[in-house]
Amino acid sequence: MNKVVVGAQWGDEGKAKITDLLAQDADLIIRYQGGCNAGHTVVVDNKTFKFHLIPSGILYGGKDCFIGAGTVILPEYFEEEVGGLIKDGIDVSRLKVSPLASITMPYHTEVDGYTEDTAKKGKIGTTKKGIGPTYTDKYARIGLKIQDLYSKETLSEKLDVILPLKNKTLEQVYGLKPYTKEQVLELCDKYAKIFEPYVCFEWQELLEKSKGKKVLFEGAQGVMLDVDYGTYPFVTSSNPIGGGAAVGSGYGPKMIDEVVGVAKAYVTRVGEGPFVSELTDEIGVKIREVGHEYGVTTGRPRRCGWFDAVTMRYAVLVGGLTTIALTKIDVFDEFEEIKVCTAYKDTRNGKIYTSYPTDVYMHKYLEPVYETHSGWMEDITGVTEYEKLPENAKKYLARLEELLGVSISIVSVGPDRTQTIFKK
Ligand code: IMP
């Protein structure tokens, strides 16, 4: 069965752990979108590995790990990440990068930083890794792809078109320094060397030969950060939804059998943007501290709130989610009460929303409608069978399934691989 792992909320749901678990059975793991804005943490035998771009399946060895065409890659970051893995003794010989992946150039990170730092209104709170500007150039058809690095003629022809436009915008719109062709060629030369051992020009053969095998598609960020369906414009610039896997991997939709949406038992978000069930009181602080809710990539404290079934139902629909992996439920071990947001109420007119309102500019008028569940008040971090969970935890899970209309097939009760319950 070929599965996609998708973040079902605003990213940071614990996808890496679920990907890592599902990767055990996979032959090929494909990262299909995003870039080094992502931060994926995997804990194996008490050792913590942090990934940004490279599929965490690399830890198993013997599996092909492919960074697909839908991704954007900041070469220096990639180099650092691979270097770290090699230093840890991880075999990276089966790591492959699509020649069609887009390159994040220094001017992309500069523009991202400038836009964020100077925004008075409408700040997105990006990771400043150049994600938006790289995708902007890709869609404007003035981006560089990894394959361009290996043809002097292509590169030269493309730069003659790209650079005059780019420099004009850099200087006149952003007040940033322009780039000479020589400078960019020199950078590209360096990047060609970085990607040389990993660029996979035989990617069509790789995908063909893996057709009868097990493929795992790894998404980054989450459905609510999707550029088409998320809380636009407070989103990332790619398609983390299940459908994104069909585009960004090189396989079409027929290769996908299951879409596993990973959701926390509560909700977190980093960066700006609406978040109706956000808790700005001591309960929010407690969730952040118990759940260690600080960004892997930026170290920023995450905003925390109760589980929001309204956005999650929406995520199930647009993300194409067929089942849920619920993570960090153990964070509630010492909560006497747990709330779930089941609807939104418009404070202007009392209107109740049970479907997700997509105009996020009116979310400031919405307040959450909660139902309250009793906590279980015991340590569940050692539970490995569903039946052995406390009754109140089972009730909470059953209610979430009822609200979402899909099964919760995996429950994670701690960061380690072993702290996982597979529900039959
Ligand atoms: P960008 O992807 O750096 O452009 O950032 C756009 C938005 O997505 C910001 O709100 C970021 O905080 C958020 N974001 C990007 N990557 C991640 C992630 O891996 N986890 C959580 N939020 C993310």
Description:
With 424 residues, the chain is α/β, with parallel strands linked by helices. It has three domains: 3-99 and 198-259, Adenylosuccinate Synthetase, subunit A, domain 1 (Adenylosuccinate Synthetase, Chain A, domain 1), CATH 3.40.440.10; 102-195, Adenylosuccinate Synthetase, subunit A, domain 2 (Orthogonal Bundle), CATH 1.10.300; 262-422, Adenylosuccinate Synthetase, subunit A, domain 3 (Adenylosuccinate Synthetase, Chain A, domain 3), CATH 3.90.170. The protein has helices at residues 15-23, 75-87, 106-118, 131-139, 152-172, 181-195, 203-209, 242-248, 282-290, 309-318, 391-404; strands spanning 3-7, 28-31, 40-44, 47-51, 64-67, 72-73, 95-97, 102-103, 215-218, 258-264, 267-269, 303-305, 307-308, 323-327, 337-346, 352-353, 366-374, 407-412, 420-422. The strands form five sheets. Strands 7-5-2-9-1-10-14-18-19 form a nine-stranded mixed β-sheet, sandwiched between helices. Strands 13, 15, 16 and 17 form a four-stranded mixed β-sheet that branches. Helix 3 (106-118) packs across helix 4. The longest helix has 21 residues, at 152-172. The relative contact order is 0.15. The chain binds inosinic acid. Inosinic acid binds at residues 10-12, 37-39, 124-127, 129, 131-132, 220-221, 225, 234, 236-237, 270-271.
